[in-house]
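Z., the sequence and structure:
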Amino acid sequence: MDVTVIICTHNHDKSLRQTLESLVRLRVPEGMSCELIVVDNASEDCTAEVVRSCEMTNMAVCYIYEPRRGQCYARNAALAAARGEVILFTDDDVRLPHNWIEGMCAPILQGEADAIVGGVKIAPHLERSWMEKGHRWWMGSSEYINVDAPEGMIGANMAFSKKVLEKVPGFDTELGPGALGFEDDTLFTRQIVAAGYRLGCALDVCVEHHFDESRLSRDGFFERSRRAAMSWAYVAYHWEHQLIRFPRLRLAKAMLRLMYKRLRNRRDMRRDEGVPSWEIDVVCGVYFYKQHLAERGRKFNYEKHGLVKVRNGDC
C-alpha cells in the first residue's frame, strides 16, 4: 500500500459526508494504491452510516470506532491500522483539490522530504472583512506559514512517511480536540524534526476549510484562545521544560491587564462576530499562566525535547 488517507471525526456526520464526496472525486495517480481510514471518535450521530454508505471507487475504505474521547486517541488508532508508506491526514470539514494525493505524497515518495506541510484556505462564505492575520491563522489558514522554516504541520492537510513512526510513535493524547484542545500537530512536527527528519512544504496543494460558522463568534474565539493557551503551556512545560518565575504574579498582572483593556475598549465588546487581536493576546496570557500553574505540580511527561512520552509523567 502506497498511501493511507486518515480522517478522524466526532459528531460531524453532515460535514463528513461532503468531505467524503470530495474524496470520491480525487485523482489517484496510476499505479498508486490508496486506502482510506475513517476513525469514529465516539460519535453519537450517523457517522457510522455515512462512512459505510460511501462508495469509494478510487480507494479501499476502513471504518474504525475509537471509544476514548480525544482526537489523538483516534489518530493513534488510525496509525496502528495504517498500511501505507505515506500517511496523509485531513479533517472532516474540508474540500479537497483533485491533485491532493499526488501533490502531498510525491515529495515523500520521491525522497525529497519526510513530512509535508500542506496548504489550507478559508472557504469563501466564511471570509470576513474584519479578519486580520491573527484571525485567519486562528481559523487554520496557512497563508502566513514561512515556507523556509515552517513551525508545524496543520492537521487538515499534512503528510509524513510511515518511517517517522519508528522514532516518534504517535500523538500526545493530552493535546488536541477532546483534551486540552490544540498543539498536537505542532508537537508532533517538532518531534519529527528533533528526530532528524526533513520537513517540506506544499502550500500550493490547498484544501478548503469549511469550519462551523459558530467559530467566528466572540464565544468561539474565546474558547479557542483559552484552549490554545492551555495547550501552549503544556508543551512549554512538559516538552521544553520551561520554568516560569513568579507565575502567580504574572497571572495576576495578566488578569488586571485584561480588565483594564476591556474597560477602555468597551465598544469592542459589542461585536457579534470576531474579537480584536489585543483581546485574544491578553486572554491567551491569562490562560497560559493558569495552565502552567496546573502543570508545574506534575513530573515532566518528556525528557527535554523528547520523542516518546514517558508513561505516567515519570521522568
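Residues 217-295 form one domain. The chain has two domains: 3-213, 217-295.

Let me know what you think.
H.
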